[in-house]
Amino acid sequence: MLTRRILLLGLIGFSITAKGGLDLSPAPSQFDGQGITYTELLFKDDKRQVKYVPPQNWTYRGSSTQLHLGPPQGFVRADAQVDAIPLVAPQALDEKAIDVLRQQFLGTLPSGAQAVKILSEENGPLLLGGNIPTYEFTASYQILGETFVRGTLVANLPDTQLRFKLTALKKDFDTLHRMFRSSLISWQWIDPASAAILAQKNSTPESASRE
Fold this sequence. Notes:
11 strands, seven-stranded antiparallel beta sheet, disordered C terminus, 4 helices, alpha+beta
């Protein structure tokens, strides 16, 4: 009986692993556009791939569930992050879900944050991948005598919630927010046939992590 139970648990674990899903470990490549060299990051999403072009001159490093991005030198105490959070079932961005997300967003602010204020909420600031609705929260807070602003844009895939988070000093936030959110327009899914062609084209990629 014990052996059968262990075997059953193993099969369940294998089926979950075999299903695959979005993996934010980046595989970089470069391409030229109008005389400028851009970095393109590729991620695995089951049989498909995702491509994303981060803002120019931003650093990156990633793992299966998180992608960290750093703005250019000159912007201190600022960072961006993409989180992939599993969903038990497809979830619409309806009023009930947004109420929950609002509380979760406020819960991500640093411990000890003071003078917390939600600055804006925006429904549909962009369509991720051309057709996936988004919702964005922006809040300000004070910590250690400085004022920061954090913005988080949420998109729900069938089995994963993506959160695109940017935190910066208030004086830098608008500039960095424009860069970061504009870059999200490049987030696109590639079907297996196109992914194979792209993989052949980029047969000698760079290291999977750069700082």
